[in-house]
Fold this protein.
Amino acid sequence: MKDELSAEQQQCLLSHLQFTAKHFQAFRGNFEKLVELVRYSVGEAAPDANAIGDFLRLEETQKTLELSYETALWRSADHNKSWRLICLAIKADPEVAKRRLARRPPSTESCSFCWQNETGFTEFVLQPEKDIYGNAIPGVYLHRQCSRPWKLMRDLVARAQTTTKENLL
Ligand SMILES: [Zn+2]
């Protein structure tokens, strides 16, 4: 008999994935470790590891997390085929966003949002940030999943600057 997760169990796992992503901000590791972290987060009521594993591999699960839970989950194209669980949530404070936008990861082979290093795979998994004219912005490379919160932070800062200017007039 195949283990089917109930709607409640799925909901519970999605929430715990979001919680785990928030805790680690950016997790990178093997699949077993990831499943273990989620099981640990859920606690005694956790479904068995195989059922969780099947659920995490579903494209549908990964899409739901990204669209409704501010969480990115994917299997990378690197040598180890490592899994990533990235918190996409940003603080609504423009000052915090400004600081975060200004910080650069130690290597240009890292994503500017989650700081995960992608040495050797940058051209496959990272894309340069583009300005409104579609030109690449030097020094900023992002995962597809990380480009949305990055843009939200840009918009947040831009809006705050506009508001400040209006107040000064
Ligand atoms: Zn990233």
In short: The first strand starts at residue 26 and ends at 29. The longest helix spans residues 144-168. Residues 113 and 146 are 6 Å apart (CA to CA).
